[in-house]
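REQUEST ID: PR-0412
SUBMITTED BY: lab tech R.K.
PRIORITY: routine
TASK: structure prediction, single protein chain
INPUT:
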Amino acid sequence: RNSTWGPEYSATIVCPSCQKENDVTFDLSRLSIKTLDVEPVEGVGSNVFKFVLPLTKREVFFRLLNSRQVQEGEEIIENTKKARGPGGHEENVTLGLINQIVRVSGVEEKKIPQFVRSLPARDSRALRSYIASITPDIDMKQNVECPACAKHIEVEVPLTGEFFWPKA
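STATUS: complete
OUTPUT:
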């Protein structure tokens, strides 16, 4: 978006301090990019990473998901909700991990879903935190000054249709 339309992007935000709706211009060139700083365990380009669970001490090998895999995972979660009725956040987390884990030391591949479902919360949280910490991303937060109250606030750059197709 930055290279096509330029770094300036105007959007409407609600100030968390004064609750006023304001038009703000963001500078997209100031967004920071988080790069992958960890080497895959099976060589460059393999997309398999390792994490040792703090409680059970098992080695978990997982992949970082691309956009197609994320979409497939969301479809699985949606289909599961339709089949079982609305499930809790825990089922979404479990299905997400099952989708990412490629193997676990001492666990047969076909038993990985069962392993994930019985994973202690501490191990699950630690694994998810580690995956989030190494996943490449763009930090969409930016500091702006509220035009109404002059407070400096940190807000998420809102992605509207104008982000992709600015008005002429």
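NOTES: The chain is about 35% helix and 25% strand.
REVIEWED BY: pending
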